[in-house]
Amino acid sequence: MKRSRLRFSSTIAALLAVPLLAMACSSEPSPTPTLPLVEAIPATVDLGVGENRVSFLLISYTELITASEARVTPFFVPSKTEDPGETIVAPFHLWPFGTRGSYVADINFDQPGDWLLFIEFEDEQGQTRNTSLALDVAASTVTPALGSKPPIVPTKTVRGTGPEGLTSWSTPDLELYQFSLEEVTRSGRPSVVAISSPAYCTSPTCGPQAEAVSELKDKFRNEGVFIHVEVYDNPEEIQGDLTRGTYSELVDTWGLSSLEGYLNESWVFILDRGGRVAFKYEGFASVEEMSKDLQTLL
């Protein structure tokens, strides 16, 4: 099974077509109204055996579901009726601008293959709703695995590059470009490495992700080291045409560009004092979520 990113807009369109088609095909009186179906949309695709941060959206054809939490039970598909995993609480995290948000669960997959998440939540009327989400879990992740020491490659700093060649961020926090990747991994402190393209992201989260890491830095500036790495090595040359862009060495070496369908979505890695990956976030991660994880290393 190929791993692919489902598009939010196309899923909405498909769901909207369902009630319209039903109305067109029947002239019978409408039955008693039923609750709209709920669809789970994956926000993470790089999944491997072991601990994983799994993020997903819940939508119906009428709304984005924003219940405070969902309950997630993983099943390995060949044995789903015999050996369900532990039920996990997945809190809801609002994305920037307050229009979308995702649920996040830490799930341990003990073998590769097809997995199914059974998802339950309570709606505003207190009724229990449910849906499921199919996932393809590989033997290992494409990006650096938890517990691994990712390769150290050169990254730009303000000491060697002007702001226009450093980042596409229109109002960059220059404190995030004071140190190179090599320097932060030798600092003896936990480090946060944000990888995003604030101006050229294909989703609305990359700029806010950089801002969230800036806020995280201000909160933990005495305990950790924080850097932002632009997805593109030549942001000043792109001028709105992404075909001109070339990926930064870190994006290629850490495997982001090898993900199916990857263009420029944001990632954040938290490395422990020894330079090993302690936490990683595909897609948007809130200050609240990152703070909770970083605090465990301090």
List its salient traits.
298 residues; alpha+beta; Immunoglobulin-like; Glutaredoxin; seven-stranded antiparallel sheet; 7 helices; 11 strands; 27% strand; globular
Architecture of the largest domain, CATH level 2?
Answer: 3-Layer(aba) Sandwich
Number of domains: 2
For the record, the CATH class of the largest domain is Alpha Beta
Low-confidence stretches: 1-27
Q: Provide the gyration radius in Å.
A: 21 Å
How would you name the CATH homologous superfamily of the largest domain? Glutaredoxin
Order of helices and strands: HEEEEEEEHHEHEHHEEH
- Overall geometry comes to globular
- CATH domain fold name of the largest domain: Glutaredoxin
Protein structure class = alpha+beta
The overall average pLDDT, rounded, is 85
Give the distance, in angstroms, between the N- and C-terminal Cα atoms: 40 Å
Helix segment tally: 7
The percent of residues in helical segments reads 10-25%
Write up this protein.
- With about 300 residues, this protein is an alpha+beta fold.
- It has two domains: about 10-135, Immunoglobulin-like (Sandwich); about 165-295, 3-Layer(aba) Sandwich (Glutaredoxin).
- Helices cover about 20% and strands about 25% of the residues.
- The longest helix is centred in the N-terminal third of the chain and has 17 residues, at about 10-25.
Summary?
The protein has 298 residues and is of the alpha+beta class.
How is this fold's topology laid out?
Elements: H1 8-24, E1 39-42, E2 50-59, E3 69-76, E4 88-94, E5 101-109, E6 113-122, E7 128-137, H2 163-166, H3 181-185, E8 191-196, H4 206-220, E9 225-230, H5 235-238, H6 249-253, E10 267-271, E11 277-282, H7 287-295
Parallel strand pairs: 8-9
Antiparallel strand pairs: 1-2, 2-5, 3-4, 3-6, 4-5, 6-7, 8-10, 10-11
